[in-house]
TrEMBL record, chain A:
Keyword line: ATP-binding, Cell membrane, Hydrolase, Membrane, Nucleotide-binding, Sulfate transport, Translocase, Transport
Encoding gene per record: cysA
One Pfam family linked to the record: TOBE_3
Protein name as it appears in the record: ABC-type quaternary amine transporter
Superkingdom of the source species: Bacteria
Annotated InterPro entries: AAA+_ATPase, ABC_SmlMolc_Importer, ABC_transporter-like_ATP-bd, ABC_transporter-like_CS, Mo/tungstate-bd_C_term_dom, P-loop_NTPase, Sulph_transpt1, TOBE-like
Domain ABC transporter residue range list: 3-233
One function term, GO molecular function aspect: ATP binding
Class of enzymatic activity (EC top level): translocase
Automatic annotation (TrEMBL), chain B:
Function of the molecule: Part of the ABC transporter complex CysAWTP (TC 3.A.1.6.1) involved in sulfate/thiosulfate import. Probably responsible for the translocation of the substrate across the membrane.
Domain ABC transmembrane type-1: 50-257
Oligomer and partners: The complex is composed of two ATP-binding proteins (CysA), two transmembrane proteins (CysT and CysW) and a solute-binding protein (CysP).
GO molecular function, one term: ABC-type sulfate transporter activity
Coiled-coil regions listed in the entry: none
Annotated Gene Ontology cellular component terms: plasma membrane
Organism, as annotated: Actinomadura spongiicola
TM ranges: 5-27, 47-76, 88-112, 124-146, 186-208, 236-256
Protein name: Sulfate ABC transporter permease
Protein's membrane topology: Multi-pass membrane protein
Pfam families attached to this UniProt entry: BPD_transp_1 (PF00528)
Amino acid sequence: MAIEIRGVNKSFGDAAVLRDVSVDVTSGSLTALLGPSGGGKSTLLRVIAGLERPDSGQVVISGRDATRLPPQRRDVGFVFQHYAAFKHMTVFENVAFGLRIRKRPKDEIKKRVGELLDLVHLDQFAERYPAQLSGGQRQRMALARALAVDPEVLLLDEPFGALDAQVRKELRAWLRRLHDEVHVTTVFVTHDQEEAIEVADTIVLLADGVVQQQGAPAEIYDNPASPFVMRFLGPVTEIDGRLIRPHDVEIRTEPGEGTSPAVITRVVRLGFEVRVEFTVRGAEGEQAAWAQLTRETVERIAIEEGAEVHVRPRPAIKHSIQIA
Amino acid sequence: MVKHVLRVIVLIYLLFLLILPVALIGWRTFGDGPGPFIDALTTHSALHAFQVTLVVAGWAVVLNTVFGVVAALLLARHEFPGKRLLNALIDLPLAVSPVVVGLALILVYGTFSPVGGWFEGRGIQIIFSTPGMVLATVFVCLPLVVRSIVPVLEELGDEQEQAARTLGAGGWQTFRRVTLPSIRAALGYGIVLSLARALGEYGAVAVVSGRTVDETQTLTLFVEERFENFDVQASYSAALALAVLAVAGLLATKLLRPRDGS
């Protein structure tokens, strides 16, 4: 295990931010701390880095108890949401900072910084100041700076949160490739479930200071432990007291086993995907729900507004939760 | 039109308040060529006053800089009980008249007070001596460095410092390599303000120094004493020299621009 977090509690004043949190992060993995804002994920990351001290519990990094160690002795790289670039230093000096603190020889520093700037595609910008870089470039610089000292673990706090959607998508894919190249154990915080599913190989879902579920993205998506987890990881709809994914709704023209009668209220075509809204007439009265269908299905069964249909969860699905 | 009127008003205001008085001192000083100016400032008393002023101002600026940086870091980066009180106390010297400061220092450090007596017993004279003058000057300059830096520290935030910590820097390294370069310009400005204030301080120093000619006479005290004794040439020459020192300090801050390529 690269990081073991054991029973960590942390409060700010009266507000409990982390409650008995235990998480294991495997060496070489790319783990996402996912959750709504205020859920405690940034605080947990800062506890790992030593920037916050837990009220109780233990943090073990690479087999060494780090709970009482100050941040400068934990061997972690930390990347901040707002880059925390050293404004009075050039890109080169920023990346060289950790090596200069460690008093490495000049030649070695020059070589290592050169390699890292190549890695993050900033070799042309070594002599610029952070103020002369774009947001995405500053964040790549911050990443190179954190990697320069060969940290045991790399921690990223909402690394793409301050960037616009396009750059965000690019950097996401780039981070995944980078991790495949560098193999350093990485933990990143995000509130975006799509980002977590796309980039991470393990997701830890935190809400209200409590770990709601942890596992591989597909596993959490397919076997959510609670309605909350299911709702957080993707769109849901409710049919017959069951919480299901809208792409798992079957719409038929004839009644069948387990179907409920429904009336189509709206059909929205979003390119390949079609969003069909309907009202289910169940045992307890009418209820609005929706389904996500392909264009081809919609054309095949001729769905249109006002049509009387029958709906049911697709029989083969694993992930639905009985909530009523 | 309005812009021109405003500009003229500001210029006239400054003319009567600042430019005219300073220019007249310069004119009076150099009315008979540079000879009398040089003669007036190279008398034994004048040179001694220069020396006393530089020693007192030098110590005061150094002490005030160290205290100012520490207090500013405390106020901007830490939460502790009594923080608001400290914040208020730092501004006190702006509100209290320097004469009161001088009298208060005599009460505490005078020969007949317990504290002053204790020092006196160890051969350290504070009042009517350099330490007392330094204390008085430090007191009146107290807020200048702190108030120059605190807003910059708050604006800066502590993320850069945290980043330095995670990269392996200890507290002192973080301060020297990250915090200090970021507040350089503001700190320089605070130091120059302190220096200008220290050079020009009159009231508090007048009270605690005892105004002994050739002993505890600073340049400002020299100006006043010469003026009282109808030696107008020496008085104006020293006054001009003080003004030049302060202006030189202010110009020096222009060299302390931040280096971030923006």
